[in-house]
Amino acid sequence: MNPYVLITLLFGLGLGTTITFTSSHWLLAWMGLEINTLAIIPLMTQHHHPRAVEATTKYFLTQATAAAMLLFASTTNAWLTGQWEIQQMTHPFPTTMIILALALKVGLAPMHSWLPEVLQGLSLTTGLILSTWQKLAPFALLLQIQPADPFILITLGLTSTLVGGWGGLNQTQLRKILAYSSIAHLGWMMLILQFSPTITLLTLITYLLMTTSTFLVFKLNKATNIATLAISWTKTPALTSLTPLILLSLGGLPPLTGFMPKWLILQELTKQDLSTLATLTALTALLSLFFYLRLSYAMALTLSPNNATGTTPWRLSSTQSNLPLALSTTTSILLLPLAPAAMALFTP
Amino acid sequence: MCFIMYLILFCFVLGLVAVASNPSPYFAALGLVVVAGMGCGVLVGHGGPFLSLVLFLIYLGGMLVVFAYSAALAAEPYPEAWGSWPVVVHMVVYMVGVVLAFVVFGGVWYESSWVSVDELGEFSVFRGDAGGVALMYSSGGWMLIISGWVLLLTLFVVLELTRGLSRGALRAV
């Protein structure tokens, strides 16, 4: 792509998220979300094959529907309450509609069907931007509204963890697995949103770090399905032995970083006298853990058959920059002891 | 006055059904003309004549005309009007949906439930809509600049999407 156009689009991505972060008016927040949608469309079609164009079309349609729903809910709120403040939403109808619109934007169940197909059609880099950066702006809005009905967020959350775990079980394509992993993590974030927005923000940030690591590992190994992942030991032996730690961190096992949000969420749910919900959610996390374990198994716990000439790629150096991967891998494995500091940092 | 508003909104919904029932783009553009025209009528009746004029000029007279010329360039041999079977099926389903929605939600509507934008009416020089536009140029200056920049971004997005003829993202170009 022309570098000037690329800079303009990436600047648009940054500007859109920044506008949504800093706005207190619903119209400006909507504008930021639309700028994000517009700017990522050409990035998604930059590899001009029909699968990418199909994914872009699906993405555009779902995001446009969600943005239209958001605009409708904002104008309804302005009509019913006379003001456009984000943090002053008192009427239940626009609040519920906004929660549903942002859930569609982000890919929560039951509005999740677009996410695996869209991620599958994209390159790993664009999929990374979609999974991480595009989640920030809707969550900035979700963190600021008070839901009218306690059950809607819990329903969205529990359904998402269930669908994310169950749907990922039958997948061999890595981008679809990461899409279902995204749905499950977003479900965990939704569950705790009305009780402790701090933990939601903490879950979001740790999920961003872990997903970044996973996408970058797959990109370095040029792996898009489990079969290619199985021969990644020939390309990056050291990283292949570290990747199970990243995957198990995504699965939420102690003493890795991914345990921190799950632990705090279960603790907070229990404090709120929702132990059954906490148990159910922990059980759904087992489903996700299964496919993370399957990936670790294929990657590092077993050696796939290969001929002798296939065992030499590790001798060649790769052109991908290693610094982002190193930083995100370290943080997604070792951040658990910083849990008190993280809780203090993310308190709004 | 209320009856005229009712007629205008009725034709608005008919136009929406005509667009959503998936005919060929020429006929859908005709439906959009009806929708935009009726929308302008609603705006006029509720105290927004300036916005109505802007909608007519820019949306109908600018964007829709460009779309009509582009659609004419991409002509198809057997265009589907509102008489062809799939379009009729869509139209019937949408009309049924509209009637259902009216039955479910239309209970509390009565004649004086519509109010106009400016409460001051005869006592103020600035109408609601023109005053809003003036605010957009004064206190809302930064939002105006961002809106202008977003339009430029949209131009780059569209140009990047359609670049490369059939080697690019759109194989049909």
Automatic annotation (TrEMBL), chain A:
Residues 23-287 form the NADH:quinone oxidoreductase/Mrp antiporter transmembrane domain. GO terms for cellular component: mitochondrial inner membrane. One of its GO terms (molecular function) is NADH dehydrogenase (ubiquinone) activity. Residues 289-341 form the NADH dehydrogenase subunit 2 C-terminal domain. Its main location: mitochondrion. Pfam families: NADH_dehy_S2_C, Proton_antipo_M. It is a multi-pass membrane protein. Its EC number is 7.1.1.2. It comes from the Eukaryota. It is found in: Mitochondrion inner membrane. It catalyses: a ubiquinone + NADH + 5 H(+)(in) = a ubiquinol + NAD(+) + 4 H(+)(out). The chain crosses the membrane at residues 57-80, 92-110, 151-170, 177-193, 199-218, 238-256, 276-295, 325-346. It is an enzyme of class 7 (translocase). Keywords: Electron transport, Membrane, Mitochondrion, Mitochondrion inner membrane, NAD, Respiratory chain, Translocase, Transmembrane, Transmembrane helix, Transport, Ubiquinone. GO terms for biological process: mitochondrial electron transport, NADH to ubiquinone. PANTHER family: NADH-UBIQUINONE OXIDOREDUCTASE CHAIN 2. Core subunit of the mitochondrial membrane respiratory chain NADH dehydrogenase (Complex I) which catalyzes electron transfer from NADH through the respiratory chain, using ubiquinone as an electron acceptor. Essential for the catalytic activity and assembly of complex I. Belongs to the complex I subunit 2 family. This is NADH-ubiquinone oxidoreductase chain 2. It comes from Lates calcarifer.
TrEMBL record, chain B:
It is found in: Mitochondrion membrane. It is a multi-pass membrane protein. Gene3D superfamilies: NADH-ubiquinone/plastoquinone oxidoreductase chain 6, subunit NuoJ. Core subunit of the mitochondrial membrane respiratory chain NADH dehydrogenase (Complex I) which catalyzes electron transfer from NADH through the respiratory chain, using ubiquinone as an electron acceptor. Essential for the catalytic activity and assembly of complex I. This is NADH-ubiquinone oxidoreductase chain 6. Keywords: Electron transport, Membrane, Mitochondrion, NAD, Respiratory chain, Signal, Translocase, Transmembrane, Transmembrane helix, Transport, Ubiquinone. Its EC number is 7.1.1.2. Belongs to the complex I subunit 6 family. It catalyses: a ubiquinone + NADH + 5 H(+)(in) = a ubiquinol + NAD(+) + 4 H(+)(out). Its main location: mitochondrion. The keyword Cytoplasm does not apply. One of its GO terms (cellular component) is mitochondrial membrane. It comes from Lates calcarifer. The chain crosses the membrane at residues 52-75, 87-110, 141-161. One of its GO terms (molecular function) is NADH dehydrogenase (ubiquinone) activity. Residues 1-20 form the signal peptide.
